[in-house]
Amino acid sequence: MKRIVLSSVLAFALTLSLGLNSCKPEKKELGPRVSQFDGISGNWILNRVAQIDVNVELAFVESDTLLDVSSVYIAGQPMEIEFQKDGTYSTVAGSGSTLFGPATGTWKFDDNDYPSFLIFNEGTSDETTINLLSPVRPQDPKLAIKVNKFCNGERTVSYHFWYNRK
């Protein structure tokens, strides 16, 4: 009797372990790392602009003071920018085109794998650093950047610029 119970328990344990092992999910691979250069390369059209007053003391987060000023920056012809993989850029004059300084120049990321900033015309008197609000993958239709304005060394206002892929 003990042998029958022991063999039944053993058979049950073996069946249970085979059943649990067959239910494991398959390992999924993320695929190759997406190139940030491929993501940002191409033409972008200014679509939306928000102004944030960073000195309002009653605001809990920066977005509490967000004001849509798109009509001011996109009136008439909106600005366009083209990023080339070779590290050059060019802008098409329009509302908001003074953001980058010269209409043409060079650009690069602060970190090619995990960029946080775009650096325009590095090492020149026209150098500008602009925050990326999110990474841009090749399949992403939007580019979002943040520009801070300073007065006497203190940040007074920030602008969020959203561009659509052309």
Describe this structure in words.
About 20% of the residues lie in helices and about 35% in strands. It has a single domain, classed as Lipocalin (Beta Barrel), CATH 2.40.128. It has helices at about 1-20, 35-40, 70-75; strands spanning about 40-55, 65-70, 80-85, 90, 105-110, 115-120, 130, 140-150, 155-165. The protein is an alpha+beta fold and about 170 residues long.
Fold blueprint:
Blueprint: H1 2-22, H2 36-40, E1 42-53, E2 66-68, H3 70-73, E3 80-83, E4 88-92, E5 104-109, E6 117-120, E7 128-132, E8 142-151, E9 154-165
Antiparallel strand pairs: 1-2, 1-3, 1-9, 3-4, 4-5, 5-6, 6-7, 7-8, 8-9
Span between termini? 79 Å
Query: Would you identify the CATH architecture?
Result: Beta Barrel
Briefly, what CATH class? Mainly Beta
Q: Kindly give the count of domains.
A: 1
Stated plainly, the CATH topology is called Lipocalin
**Mean pLDDT metric:** 81
| Radius of gyration over C-alpha positions, nearest whole angstrom | 27 Å
Q: Can you tell me the overall shape?
A: elongated
Unreliable segments of 5+ consecutive residues: none
What is the helix/strand order?
HHEEHEEEEEEE
Largest sheet, spatial ordering of strands = 1-3-4-5-6-7-8-9
**Major sheet attributes:** 8 strands, antiparallel, barrel
Q: Based on helices, strands and strand pairing, what is the structural class?
A: alpha+beta
Number of helices: 3
Could you tell me the number of beta strands? 9
Fraction of residues in H or I helices:
10-25%
